[in-house]
Amino acid sequence: MTPAYLVTVLLGGIAALDATPIGQTMLSQPLVVATVLGAVWGDWTTALEVGIVLQVLAVSTLPVGARTPEDYATGGVVGVGLALGLASRQSFVMAREASALLGVLGGIVTAIGGVPLLRWQRRLNEGLSRWCEEEIRSGREGALAASHRAAVVLAFGVGVAYCAVCLGLGIGWLGAFSERESLRLARAWSLAQPLWLGLGLAQVLHAFIQRRLVRGAMFGAALIGAWLVLMVGTP
Amino acid sequence: MSRLTGADLRRVALRTPLLQATWNYERQQGLGWAWCLKPALDRLYADPELRRARLAEHTAYFNTQPTLASLVLGAVVGLEEQRADGAGPDAGGVSRVKGVLGSALAAVGDRLFWSTLKPFAACLGVLFALSWSWFGAIVFWLSYNAVHLGLRWRGVAWGYREGPAVLSGALRRRLEKLVRRLSLMGSGLVGVLIAALLVPGGEPRSLAFQTTLVAGLMFGLLAALRSRPSPTQWALGLGALCLVATWTR
Predict the structure, then answer these.
(1) Distance in angstroms between the alpha carbons of the first and the last residue of chain A
(2) ipTM score of complex
(3) Which residues on chain B are in Cβ contact (under 8 Å) with A66?
């Protein structure tokens, strides 16, 4: 395993911690993870192409109430890591685009596949929680710190393991396919990238506007104004 | 007379990042809540038996938006201080305050952090990432955490000072105003972002890209009217469709 793969897998554990157990500071979001991995692998173009698409999709996933949202923390790491791993094997632009497509698809599948894993961890925490209360009542206050340590270690371990398995399977299964079918995959990327960006941005726009006329007008004015400035230039 | 010091409140605030470490379906943030409150209980209850009883009480069910939980923590620390002096509410009273404040702050907090601030900061980050690469992630992280970490650290002292009435006055108005302003600015930001995607650096993208982006937007607006399938499931379906379309063409 190369150092870049090792850092990617460890980042999967850190992202899994930031997503819910520690902090929720958005370090686990695909854009941030992509920037870090872009620096590690020395390929910001591929990393950010995948990171931007996954970020736009991740932002419409809300962890409200007791809902278990899609796991974009490990999804982002696996998606970007997979794209970088595949792109590092070939140097053509077309191969980079093919890797980006497989990276985003891998990230989405990992994010969806992470939901049962998150549920499993949360069920384990139920037992930990009951055990901790009993221990406190029987005089062992240290159980509170011990249960927190256990939950953090579990989340990190599961994040690292899940990331390693998904990345390993992705590189193993898709490596040869990506090299063989890079032309078709690059064409599919040129179709899928704007569709994904449009889909994600529409969800965000819907959440912002919420049928308020002023906000809709603000969106329209900003779109036309920015388009004119970009096309014609500032006066 | 106050028995808790500023250092005690800071110790409680320092533990708030771990509020959700043991999140589970049964008690949700319950155990994390007890963990955060422990430094204050250590100070207030010298008798180990009484302290353990109070700590065990606080492992019960609790859930709210994690950033704004600091405000509830501060308010409950104040109530526990009164209780230790023999003046405050009983266990049922503290539990009711936790429940009411938790629900009210979850309603405001979910809208502020998950539906408004996070998408706003992410769109800002993506806009910068389109032109200045790595700078976008820093803009995203800073713009979100300026509010998130600020409220998380200062919230405990704020809640302690205001007590259970922490959300009844000026704070609720300020948070609601922030949601409205961010939503308005966010609507404009999405407009700028779409323009930047259509015409990056003044060079228009191909007609095929522009048409597909608009098609994605239209489809996304229709998909947003229904909660199922989720946007991620739609995205997977669209990706598969693109692969099929490319292979069969």
Answers:
(1) 54
(2) 0.94
(3) 25, 28, 63
At position B57, the amino acid (one-letter code) is E
Q: How far apart are CA B59 and CA A96, in angstroms?
A: 51
Q: What tens digit of pLDDT does each residue of B132-158 get? A: 678 999 999 999 999 999 999 999 999
Task: Read off the pLDDT of residues A126-146 as tens digits, 9 standing for 90 and up.
Answer: 999 999 999 999 999 999 999
Q: What pLDDT score was predicted for residue B1?
A: 47
Q: How far is it, in rounded angstroms, from Cα A195 to Cα B212? A: 6
Alpha carbons B32 and B18: distance in angstroms, whole number = 6
| Residue B196 contacts A, CB cutoff 8 Å | yes
Residue with the two structure tokens 């522009």: B210
First-to-last CA distance in chain B?
A: 79
- Please state, in angstroms and as integers, the Cα–Cα distance from residue B51 to each residue in B2, B39, B47, B77, B82, following that order: 18, 11, 6, 14, 15
Q: Is B114 on the interface with A (CB under 8 A)?
A: yes
Burial class of residue B60 in the structure, from the number of CB atoms within 10 Å of its CB (0-12 exposed, 13-18 middle, 19+ buried): middle
Q: Which residues, including other chains, have CB under 8 Å from residue A170's CB and lie 6 or more apart?
A: A78, A82, A85, A102, A106
CB contact under 8 A, B140 and A32: yes
In chain A, the residue whose alpha carbon lies closest to the alpha carbon of B145 is: A25
Residues in B 34-73 with any Cβ partner in A closer than 8 A: 34-35, 38, 48, 51-53, 55-56, 59, 63, 66-67
If you measure CA to CA, which chain A residue comes closest to B42?
A141
The pTM (predicted TM-score) of the whole model is 0.94
> How many Cβ atoms sit within 10 Å of the Cβ of residue A91?
8
Are the C-beta atoms of residues A54 and A106 closer than 8 Å to each other?
no
- pLDDT, mean over chain A: 93
Is A90's Cβ below 8 Å from some Cβ in B? no
Q: How many CA atoms lie within 13 A of A159 on its CB side?
A: 29
Question: What helix, strand, coil percent values describe chain A, rounded to 5?
Answer: 80, 0, 20
Instruction: Single out the residue of B248, B204, B216, B242 nearest to residue A186, CA to CA.
Output: B242
Angle at B206 between CA B205 and CA B208, to 5 degrees: 125
- B88 interfacial to chain A (CB closer than 8 Å): no
Q: Which residues of A touch B207 (CB under 8 A)?
A: none
Q: Is the peptide bond before B231 cis (omega within 30 degrees of 0)?
A: no
Q: Which of A132, A156, A224, A229 has the highest number of chain B CBs within 10 A, making it the mutation to test binding with B?
A: A132
